[in-house]
Amino acid sequence: MKPIIIKYKTEYSLRERIILFVLSIYVPVYKLIIHKRYSWNLKKNDLLQFPEKTLGNELGLFLQREELEIIEKIESHDVFHLLLEYKTKVIEESAMTFFLIGNGKVSIYTIGSAVFSGIFYPEKWKYFYQHYKRGRDALPFTHWDFKALLNHNLEELKNIIFKKTNIYTGI
């Protein structure tokens, strides 16, 4: 198994560095637990070959912009960033976790991340609860096959999730 590399930037606070350290251990363990999940077998450059404004191309651009590589079996995590418009800062990662729980994604990873975030950021509980409610109000989407949606327009997918488009008629 390839190691998960999480960049420690100098502007990270001690609290953020501790969380990133824990994640660097937690993510590989989680990958072992979900060993039955399939990998997309795609790299950043493969994603950049998708047509402009598609989920695939935008995912490639996101990874390029954030200087990230796709993590096997956890590819959907970066898709969540795009669809939900959360940045990769630690506090926004935490808020996204609460959104996902509100949206029905209850797993060892999301619950563990939420508990850890709640302990490390007690002053952000109200903020996290707002994102939980935002997730609860959105169309459940975490079960979608995102690899099959890489050719779809990113904005249209967002509109479906946030109920701005009727999923059945496309309007």
Q: What report would you give on this structure?
A:
The model is unreliable at 1-5 (pLDDT under 50). The protein starts with 13 loop residues before the first helix and ends in a 10-residue tail after the last helix. With 171 residues, the chain is mostly helical. It has helices at residues 14-33, 44-48, 55-65, 75-84, 90-102, 108-120, 125-137, 154-161. 54% of the residues lie in helices and 0% in strands. α1 (14-33) packs antiparallel against α6 and α5 crosses α7 (125-137).
Report the β-strand fraction as a percent range.
Answer: under 5%
Regions with pLDDT < 50 over 5+ consecutive residues? 1-5
Label the overall shape.
globular
What string gives the helices and strands in order? HHHHHHHH
**DSSP, total strands:** 0
Give the helix/strand layout.
Elements: H1 14-33, H2 44-48, H3 55-65, H4 75-84, H5 90-102, H6 108-120, H7 125-137, H8 154-161
Helix pairs in contact: 1-6, 5-6, 5-7
Care to give the gist of this entry?
Helices cover 54% and strands 0% of the residues. The chain is mostly helical and 171 residues long.
Notable traits:
171 residues, mainly alpha, 8 helices, globular, disordered N terminus
